């Protein structure tokens, strides 16, 4: 640095400007548009790396005069004597690369594929995309999907695709998709009417479209036994908690048998239900002899089963 500094005190630099030049990045570097002549090669290389302004966008140009360039060079090297030759101004054009619409769709599709791992998902492009023109050479950019939704749902979905130029986001293209999410679920094999008893035999497993407008989660088959239809239900319907009536099997204050299981050992004692619940619900019971409270599963109107190995 000391040697370079001493050379700057006595060295002049000549900048030769053409009438037109093309640049490959978002910033204009002097060495891309002009010839730099100096007695010291190290100084010449340093001058060539000076950024002298923004590059025009694809489809546009920019005129740079030698006095504008001289101001930027003087800021970078205040002790250098500058000489300009060639043209008094240079018309700057960007080198342009065209990113095809197919490439943008492929990037969005890859993002959807990554988000669909372990799911049964279909997605179809619903928007028309145009090719995108970016400044620079082909190897200067890359595409990156930027889906910010943690889970996929049935419906319309926007998948942003970022165009990165030299590692920085240059532009974001928004693609839109129609998404369908499917799942294998138990559904009614036939129509049922309000008040009809429900059992597992009335259900079969089918591939079902998950619609976020549907209310509630499917009722587990273990909870269907003993319930009745709360309203008329159609064939093929996924049954939710709002669709069934599950009668209360045990009410708070009822005397119950408490079956306590630890591994292969089973014992029955008398207890009192603290909460109410239907079959297969979890309720809290208090043992009459010890006063200990335990969480168990309602097996009938008289029995609560407690699995000590599963109790937390």
From TrEMBL:
Example GO BP: bacterial-type flagellum assembly
The keyword Signal is annotated on this UniProt entry: yes
Keyword annotations: Cell projection, Cilium, Flagellum, Signal
Highest rank taxon of the organism: Bacteria
Residue ranges of domain Flagella basal body P-ring formation protein FlgA SAF in the record: 186-306
Extent of the signal sequence: 1-21
TM spans (from-to): none
Pfam families: ChapFlgA
InterPro entries: Flagellar_FlgA, SAF_FlgA
Stretches assigned to coiled coil: none
Name assigned to this protein: Flagellar basal body P-ring biosynthesis protein FlgA
């Amino acid at each position: 640095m000391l040697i370079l500094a001493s050379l700057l005190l006595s060295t002049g630099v000549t900048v030769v400007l053409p009438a037109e030049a093309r640049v490959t990045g978002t910033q204009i570097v002097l060495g891309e548009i002009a010839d730099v002549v100096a007695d010291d090669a190290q100084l010449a290389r340093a001058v060539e790396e000076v950024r002298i302004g923004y590059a025009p966008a694809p489809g546009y140009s920019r005129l740079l005069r030698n006095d504008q360039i001289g101001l930027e060079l003087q800021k970078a090297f205040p002790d250098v004597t500058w000489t300009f030759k060639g043209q008094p101004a240079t018309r700057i054009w960007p080198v342009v690369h065209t990113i095809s619409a197919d490439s943008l769709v492929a990037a969005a599709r890859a993002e959807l594929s990554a988000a669909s791992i372990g799911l049964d998902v279909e997605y179809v492009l619903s928007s028309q995309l145009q090719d995108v023109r970016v400044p620079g050479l082909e190897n200067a950019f890359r595409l990156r999907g930027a889906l910010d939704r943690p889970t996929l749902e049935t419906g319309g979905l926007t998948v942003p695709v970022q165009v990165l130029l030299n590692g920085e986001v240059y532009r974001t293209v928004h693609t839109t998709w129609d998404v369908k999410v499917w799942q294998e679920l138990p559904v009614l094999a036939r129509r049922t009417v309000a008040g009809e008893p429900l059992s597992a035999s009335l259900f079969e497993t089918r591939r079902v479209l998950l619609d976020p407008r549907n209310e509630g989660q499917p009722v587990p088959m273990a909870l269907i036994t003993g319930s009745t239809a709360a309203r008329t239900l159609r064939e093929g319907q996924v049954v939710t908690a709002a669709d069934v009536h599950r009668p209360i099997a045990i009410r708070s204050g009822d005397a119950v048998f408490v079956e306590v299981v630890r591994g292969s050992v089973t014992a029955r004692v008398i207890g009192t239900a603290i909460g109410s619940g239907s079959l297969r619900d979890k309720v809290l019971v208090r043992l009459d002899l010890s006063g200990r409270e335990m969480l168990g599963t309602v097996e009938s109107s008289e029995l609560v089963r407690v699995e000590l190995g599963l109790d937390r």
